Amino acid sequence: MANAVRTRSGQSAQEARVRARQNWKRLLILVVALFLVVNVGRSVLPSLGIRSPVGGKQPTPGETTTTQAQTTPPANAEVNGVKVLGSGAPIVTVDPGIVRPDMPVTIVGSGFDPGAKIDLVMTAGSGKKAKTTPLGTAIGDRYGSFYTTIKFPSQGLNADTSTRDITAQQRGGKKVAKSQAQLAAGAAGVAKMSAMVGKPGDVVTLTVSGFSPGEDLNVYWGRISGTPNAVLHTDAHGAVSKVPIKVGVSAVGTTSVVIVGQKSGAAASLPFQVLKLYPSIALKPYAMRAMNPVGFSGKGFMPGERVLVRLNSAGGAPILALQTDGAGAFHSGGFIVPYQLKGAQRLVFTGELSGATTTSSFSVLPYMPMVRTSTYGGSPGTSISFYAQGFGANEAVWVYAAKGKGAKSQLVAAFRVDATGRARAAGQYTIPGDAGDAVLFTLVGQRSGGTATVTFKVDNSAGPVDVPPQPPYKLPPDLQN
Fold this sequence. Notes:
Layout lengths: L1 H42 L31 E5 L2 E4 L5 E5 L2 E2 L4 E7 L6 E8 L6 E9 L6 E6 L11 E8 L5 E8 L6 E4 L3 E2 L4 E7 L6 E6 L8 E4 L6 E7 L6 E9 L5 E8 L5 E5 L2 E3 L3 E7 L6 E6 L8 E4 L6 E7 L6 E9 L5 E9 L4 E4 L3 E2 L4 E7 L6 E8 L6 E7 L6 E8 L7 E8 L5 E8 L23
Parallel strand pairs: 4-10, 12-18, 20-26, 28-34
Antiparallel strand pairs: 1-2, 3-5, 5-8, 6-7, 6-9, 9-10, 11-13, 13-16, 14-15, 14-17, 17-18, 19-21, 21-24, 22-23, 22-25, 25-26, 27-29, 29-32, 30-31, 30-33, 33-34
């Protein structure tokens, strides 16, 4: 009986010790849990907009406490695809900030209402002179942001200021954001050429960048105004790649190639060494008589320029103006040599634009006609005519007669040669009774100046000859020249 009582007492003591250890473990877990709750309440809940009296400010009389989170502030920007919270004020930005007409520009906005329509406008100038240009309409996404790309307009480029205000206005609301874009008018473009030395008319390739998309570029050689030597057109990136152009007319030596954008006002320039032109002339024939053609061709001049041809001088009025082709050459030039030119002559060829000059010489040969009478001799009273060749085409030939050596010549007849300078049995003359033993005839071409002589031998008549004297010869009007 006593053993049974001792056994139950020992079991009760052991159970008491087990319960005590369990109670301490529960208490320790409770303390740790309470510690965690307090710290979480102090650090996390305020960031969610939940106010807790634990370790914080006690509510004032009449103030109600809440454990509900306030509205989350709207996102103000997106960084690498992550929306970043901000103050909620709308923002609009322009990228790039320095712009040119017709170039792509990205407009980014945030802080607007989700799904709202946002009007985008550009303002140029200020006050009464301000001009507003609509740029389009954007739609806010679920975060109230938008992203759009436009082509920067060219309207209003003549405004007084070089800046443009970009405004994003939410429809039906008061949310407005502004940004500015700076015009790059007058900025420098970039240019390079395949060669930096050449002659006018040579072909080089030109590459440019930094201009407005789709604008015309005027290319000048040695100047910055007037009629451009070439007009190029930029692509969607404001560039031109390896386009062939001809070296323009400029002073020999170092000059500048200037490229000017007609919309943007941007410009680029390159130094270029202009070489002297050395043209040449092929002339044929080098010797001819008057009223015959002299032909010539040339090369080495400026493409598309006129070549002025002058006679025996680099100045004065030109006698011809010949147009060169795309290679700076001309062909089939020439003229009929007039009777007034005699002996050595010089032609001077000058490029009207390039000033390139070269010369070529030729000789005008004299006419040397030949004449014979219809008979070589005869008695006084013999009637003769003349056979001639080598005179100028279709010219009048005057016949002079001198009775005896040293006698004075008199005009006794005239006739006209044909297109070949020939005449057959032309002119009439009767040998007078006082002719002596010979009559000397001199025939002179009235245009060519060609002269020929022939002697008619007079037979001895052994006494007086009754030949009526001839009246003085009267030159017909149609044989004046």
